């Protein structure tokens, strides 16, 4: 475990360095250092570094939040494809935020978080209801299909709302695909209490998730209050997913790819998986953002699209393994 933590920490540092140095305009380490220390004389370089710091901080926070949420959702549902994006939770949260902006005049990240929590809970209930209608043996695939259907519906509704308001279309296009660009890192402070509560609930859910993996009956036999502890863990997952969406829009597949990668490295114990996901999730999102800057200069590909390109093959592999194909 120690070597895995060291490697993950190095991955985060490498991702941060790449995020500060690479982009449409590459910067030398000396230029970045001068901008950070205030000794640089080029205001253009200083502005580039400041923008990259903002998107790096947002990427780190969102990556950690979505990865943790994915671990908890997979553990609670005992479904290896459960993840905020695949289950449509992020899209539901984004739709609620867009509706709040359009019809309620929401204009703060705090307001976005409240709307996102409502949207996340509504979609979670809908996906669960749809899954229960399918045969139990096909539950993992049925849950993913239900989430995909809800995600498509939410994205269509977002598009319909934004098209009616050209200003909203230009300003909030990232609500459809997810992006860390153009966001102020100071917004993290606005949602920090919700983030901390969600992270605390998720990180302390390891014993509950391990017990749930053995089955509810055995968990009760081990002295677990299954209903309460499941509820607390689920609350943590919802808060993290909603906050991540409020900060960066719907970014899918991070909560799928990272937990499965972590399990390959350290096994299935949820304490280890949760701890390592806190590091690899941020590294994954930040590196995806860097790739998005480099693949089609001078334009950028949103981080949500890059994560989907990486995550879609992983989803196929996981589903094939679940079905034994």
Structural write-up:
This protein has 325 residues and is mainly α. The protein has one domain (2-323): ABC transporter involved in vitamin B12 uptake, BtuC (Orthogonal Bundle). Helices cover 77% and strands 0% of the residues. It has 16 helices and no strands. The longest helix has 35 residues, at 43-77. The model has no long low-confidence stretch (mean pLDDT 88).
Describe this protein with a few key phrases:
single chain; 325 residues; mainly alpha; ABC transporter involved in vitamin B12 uptake, BtuC; membrane; transport; Iron ABC transporter permease
| Parts with pLDDT < 50 across at least 5 consecutive residues | none
Counted beta strands: 0
**Quick one: CATH class?**
Mainly Alpha
What Rg is obtained from the alpha carbons, in whole angstroms? 20 Å
What is the helix/strand order?
A: HHHHHHHHHHHHHHHH
Number of helices: 16
CATH fold call: ABC transporter involved in vitamin B12 uptake, BtuC
Query: What is the helix content?
Result: over 70%
**β-sheet strand percentage:** under 5%
Number of domain units: 1
Topology:
Layout: H1 2-21, H2 29-37, H3 43-77, H4 89-104, H5 109-132, H6 139-163, H7 166-171, H8 174-177, H9 187-190, H10 192-203, H11 206-213, H12 216-221, H13 226-248, H14 254-266, H15 270-294, H16 303-323
Helix pairs in contact: 1-3, 1-15, 2-3, 3-10, 3-13, 3-14, 3-15, 4-5, 4-6, 4-13, 5-6, 5-13, 10-13, 11-15, 14-15, 15-16
Keywords: Cell membrane, Membrane, Transmembrane, Transmembrane helix, Transport
Transmembrane segments: 58-76, 88-106, 112-132, 144-163, 232-261, 273-295, 301-319
Family: Belongs to the binding-protein-dependent transport system permease family. FecCD subfamily.
């Amino acid at each position: 475990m120690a070597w895995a933590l060291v490697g993950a920490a190095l991955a985060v540092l490498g991702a941060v360095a790449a995020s500060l140095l690479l982009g449409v305009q590459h910067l030398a380490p000396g230029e970045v250092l001068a901008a950070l220390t205030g000794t640089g004389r080029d205001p253009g370089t200083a502005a580039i570094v400041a923008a990259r710091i903002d998107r790096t901080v947002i990427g780190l926070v969102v990556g950690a939040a979505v990865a943790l949420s994915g671990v908890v959702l997979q553990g609670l549902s005992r479904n290896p494809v459960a993840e905020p994006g695949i289950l449509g939770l992020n899209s539901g949260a984004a739709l609620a935020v867009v509706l709040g902006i359009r019809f309620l005049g929401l204009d703060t990240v705090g307001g976005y978080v409240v709307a996102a929590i409502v949207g996340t809970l509504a979609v979670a209930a809908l996906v669960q209801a749809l899954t229960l209608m399918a045969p139990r043996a096909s539950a993992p695939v049925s849950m993913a299909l239900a989430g995909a259907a809800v995600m498509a519906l939410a994205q269509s509704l977002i598009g319909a709302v934004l098209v009616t308001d050209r200003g909203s279309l230009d300003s909030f296009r990232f609500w459809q695909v997810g992006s860390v660009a153009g966001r102020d890192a100071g917004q993290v402070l606005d949602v920090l209490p919700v983030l901390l509560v969600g992270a605390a609930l998720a990180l302390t859910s390891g014993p509950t998730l391990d017990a749930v993996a053995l089955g509810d009956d055995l968990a009760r036999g081990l002295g677990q209050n299954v209903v309460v502890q499941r509820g607390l863990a689920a609350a943590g997952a919802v808060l993290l997913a909603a906050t991540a969406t409020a900060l960066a829009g719907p970014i899918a597949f991070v909560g799928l790819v990272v937990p499965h990668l972590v399990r390959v490295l350290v096994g299935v114990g949820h304490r280890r998986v949760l701890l390592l996901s806190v590091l690899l999730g941020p590294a994954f999102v930040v590196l995806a953002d860097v790739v998005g800057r480099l693949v089609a200069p001078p334009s950028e590909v949103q981080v949500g699209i890059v994560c989907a390109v990486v995550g879609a093959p992983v989803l196929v592999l996981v589903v094939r393994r679940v079905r034994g194909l």
